[in-house]
Amino acid sequence: MCLVPYHERAATNKKLYEDIIMKEKQAQQQQQQQQQQQEEDGSGITQFVNKKKVKIRQPDFDKYEQLCRGEQTDVGIPHTSAF
Questions:
Q1: Residue 3, CA distances (Å) to 6, 57, 62, 66, 82 in order
Q2: Is the pLDDT of residue 4 over 80?
Q3: Could you tell me which of 78, 77, 80, 74 has the C-alpha nearest to residue 60?
Q4: Residue of 81, 59, 61, 60 lying closest to 70 (CA atoms)
Q5: Is residue 63 packed enough to be buried (19+ CB in 10 Å), middle (13-18) or exposed (0-12)?
Q6: 47 pLDDT exceeds 60?
Q7: 28 pLDDT more than 90
Q8: Of the candidates 9, 27, 7, 6, which has an alpha carbon nearest to the alpha carbon of residue 17?
């Protein structure tokens, strides 16, 4: 494959590519401005909201959570790092 700068589609492709780059730069600048504004007025701190709805809690889930935290359970010994 070779590049032909004077091909009829070359100018259109170049313009399309430049437009994409310009839009990406504008979006990045807008995001930076929003972050700066949130830092200035303190609105950048958001409260965590758990959207997951647990309908049925399985019987062994409490034991699973205890094992994940490294707590002793009647299931077995807690997971400890070998390192």
A1: 9, 61, 63, 62, 56
A2: no
A3: 74
A4: 81
A5: middle
A6: yes
A7: yes
A8: 9
The mean of the pLDDT values for the chain is 77
Question: Is the pLDDT at 61 greater than 90, yes or no?
Answer: no
The residue whose two tokens read 């062994």 is 60
CA dist 30 and 36 (Å) reads: 10
With residue 64 as reference, give the H or E element that holds it: helix 61-68
Instruction: At 68, list the tokens.
Output: 């994940």
Q: What mean pLDDT do residues 46-51 have?
A: 66
Residue type at 39 in one-letter notation: E
- Judged against a pLDDT cut of 70, whether residue 19 lies above it is answered with yes
How far is the C-alpha of 57 from the C-alpha of 54, rounded, in Å? 7
Residue with tokens 């170049």: 14
